[in-house]
Design a protein that fits this description.
92 residues; mainly beta; two-stranded antiparallel ribbon; 1 helix; 7% helix
């Protein structure tokens, strides 16, 4: 089992998580968010995916074990920014 990283939250109560290796098919109507940053919010008492981001090279990251989820997301509130580090060591 690999390392686990925590989630981050913003002042509006949104929760942000990052995922590691896995299939990505959300962009084509599926349910999988491999190597993605996911924004969760509450709608009518249910936790829902409010937004998400996957790098343009997600397929390469998946193939070469370059997890986007290698580091947990961090919210920079004064700038309304969110960032996360991947195994390649670059900010996303």
């Amino acid at each position: 089992m690999g390392q686990r990283h925590g989630a981050a939250a913003d002042a509006d109560g949104n929760i942000y998580v990052s995922t590691g290796n896995g299939a990505l098919d959300k962009n084509t109507g599926g349910l999988d968010f491999g190597d993605s940053l996911i924004k969760l919010s509450v709608s009518n008492g249910t936790l829902v995916v409010a937004d998400w981001f996957s790098p343009h090279d997600q397929a390469n990251m998946y193939t070469n074990d370059l997890d986007l989820g290698a580091g947990g997301p961090v919210v920079i509130p004064a700038r309304t920014w969110l960032f996360s580090l991947a195994k390649p060591g670059r900010c996303t």
